Amino acid sequence: MQKIQLPKLKKIGEQPKVNKKDYIPKDQRKKILMLSDDIRTHSGVGGMAREIITNSAHHFNWVNLGGAVKHPEAGKGFDISSDINKLINIPDSFVKVVACNGYGDQNILRQIIAQEKPDAIVHFTDPRYWIWMYQMENEIRQQCPLVFYTIWDDLPYPMWNRDFYRSDDMLLCISKQTKNLVENVLRDHPKPGRIKYVPHGIDEKKYFPVVNDFEFEAFKERILGEDKDFVVLHVSRNIRRKNQSDIILAWRTFLDQLPVEKAKKCTLLMKTETSFEHGTDLNAVIDSLCDPEIHQVKIINERFNDKDLNYLYNCSDAHMFLTDNEGWGLGLTESLTAGRMIIAPVQGGMQDQMRFEDENGDWINFSTEHPSNADGKYKKCGEWAMPIFPKTRSVKGSPMTPYIFASQCSIEDAAIALMKVYKMGPEERQRRGLAGREWVLSDESGCTAKAMGQGFIDNIDNLLKEWKPQPRFRVIKVDDSTKLNNYNPAPISLTPEFLKEIQSI
Questions:
Q1: Are 458 and 360 in contact (CB under 8 A)?
Q2: What's the pLDDT tens digit per position in 476-495?
Q3: What distance in Å separates the CA atoms of residue 341 and residue 328, rounded to the nearest whole number?
Q4: How far apart are alpha carbons 311 and 216 in whole angstroms?
């Protein structure tokens, strides 16, 4: 008689096997509430929040209070768990989006906390959007810890952010400069072990070098027309601090140094708004500064899906920023992941992506004594980057953010950077761009979406192991010993050249 092989029956309550590090069954996971842009939107904050959630949904259950300006679905909730299951190949994720106008308010947050009972709350982006939430931090922290995924663009140390930072149980810092900044702002009230570096991470399956793709060739022809010798891309919003007009003038200045026939084989692509009230009218800038026959600049004002955005990066030889304030520069990371070089100012999180080396050959960290490499103390960086060191730094501000450096690069230096990259030739530019992708995917950089998700898993797990509910009220006796010191230690480091010259006067 033939032996019949019966299928193995799953025992009642047996959990599915999932081949994922740190996987926890749905009913055993901690639940995290993410306050951010709606993760279904295409904003930078929404995109990064989505990557955090999708790369940790095997370990945490997530609820997203998802904001948008005049959200068309405000007040509605959406269970997107089945979509996440397909995306990350697990059977039992729990991801819910609750849509709201703006970033919500105290009443909405109270309702969600009562209904969802989160084990922790993570919030993301400028703390001034969350003043209403910080006004109820004692109420929140009686029930669960508060985690801030934070970044700040530049020095001097923003002491006016201190009350926000003090109200958080953990601060996950997007850039190395931000980590040093937060530690200095909290020097009177340190948080040992609770200020960690977790850089932005990109999904390398969305952005990658394209080879032998007929769809890409058709896309490239639509964007560029004829083949070009040199294409530079800029992807960003049309807002003042991005200095798109400076990029256009630097482009013209660079092209004017080439023979006319060679200049005509170069194109600057700018994926941005043609005109915007918080920026400028770029068509007017181009019409005034550029000869359309020689200085080719194309504005692309359309929304791309991930596939077409990757195609756009692959149309270029390098990605250029010239901003005077930039926390991270997500377009640069996406471009590096696609295997393209970057040209950018030395400031903010862009310094991380350039990977400057110290005197020991190590990737630099920042300290009170050396809070930024904008002074050019370290020159050696990853070969995929063409750094532009700022010529001037001025202190700007507003009533709510009284001071911050605007680090301005000169148009001439930007034109020189363009010429250096152009003169490398296509093979060398490609080699360096691929070296950039290799570094982005390395364990050292931590700039993959998977590494970012793991950073959230590890740090929130550690926080939840030791966190204790906070008291409803705290009484603080204010005297000379408890007054906070607003003094900014070493907001700039003084170069040997400066010290030599000023001491010789």
A1: no
A2: 777 766 678 899 988 888 88
A3: 16
A4: 6
